[in-house]
Amino acid sequence: MTNQQLLRRMSEDMQMRGMAEGTQALYLRRAEKFLAYCGKSAHDLDERDARQYLLHLTREEKLSNGSVNTFNEAIRFLFAVTMNRTMNYLQMPRFKKRRTLPELLSREEALAIIAGCVNLKHKCWLLLAYGSGLRVSEIAALRVQDIDSRTMRVFVQDGKGGKDRYTLLSSECLRTLRDYWREYRPARGGWLFPGAANPSGHITSDAIGKAFIRYRRKQGIEKDVSIHSLRHAFATHLLEDGATILQIKELLGHASLNSTWVYLHLANITADLVSPADRRCGDGR
């Protein structure tokens, strides 16, 4: 089997496991680069070749730990699943991830970005990100019937990990969606946001992300934030308003609480607290 045939087999293996399309594409690119670097048949490769390539990525190409880890994962999949080869993975350790906190938009900043949006369709996107906590891919893939005005919920079908869920629908978002529907008339049963170049498909995640950047710049916000930051703000501000971690986990569609705990670090939990250094003995303060 040639390397190209092997990559096609790898693609099939990922499809059979229901992996996200973005992950499939990323792993294939990573595996293809690895094979091109080694310059020989994959069947002649072992963990020593993989180790040498990962060191090359770290030392010469100076990729981030996270990027090197995705190469590592793609190579492991190629060997372990597609080639059914047992390897000594102790020779291919993953970098330990450094848990950094994302930069957070304040309530005022999030609302200012939305208020500065003059395009109805774009405003819907931003409100669904901040008011419902949707991922950008989930906003793009919404259908008209996913908006439930009776229960004030948004249905997310086949979200990350292939999971369905419901999340909040804000009153402001519903009003804007109704204005949008009157102007654009998307067909029931079809995409809520059809693609501009391909009306039979939905809008791209990239188009939504670019719209956010435009309005963020319009408000003069220099923070390192993206459309996904509105989802972070949704969860953090809900937590500050009294929602529980379990509620937020379900609204966001997290598979594990480990992904949701980060919002405890982002939320302002010090607002009503007094430092012990500011309490004087005996006065009850």
Explain what you see.
By secondary structure, the protein is mostly helical. It folds into 2 domains: 3-91, Orthogonal Bundle (DNA polymerase, domain 1); 107-266, Intergrase catalytic core (hpI Integrase, Chain A), CATH 1.10.443.10. Helix content is 51%, strand content 4%. It has 12 helices and 3 strands; from the N terminus they run αααααααβββααααα. The protein has helices spanning 3-16, 21-38, 47-59, 65-82, 107-115, 120-132, 136-140, 171-184, 205-218, 228-240, 245-252, 262-266; strands at 147-148, 153-156, 165-168. The chain has a 3-stranded antiparallel beta sheet with strand order 1-2-3. Helix 1 runs antiparallel to helix 2 and helix 3 (47-59) packs antiparallel against helix 4. The chain starts with a helix and ends in a 19-residue tail after the last helix. The model has no long low-confidence stretch (mean pLDDT 90).
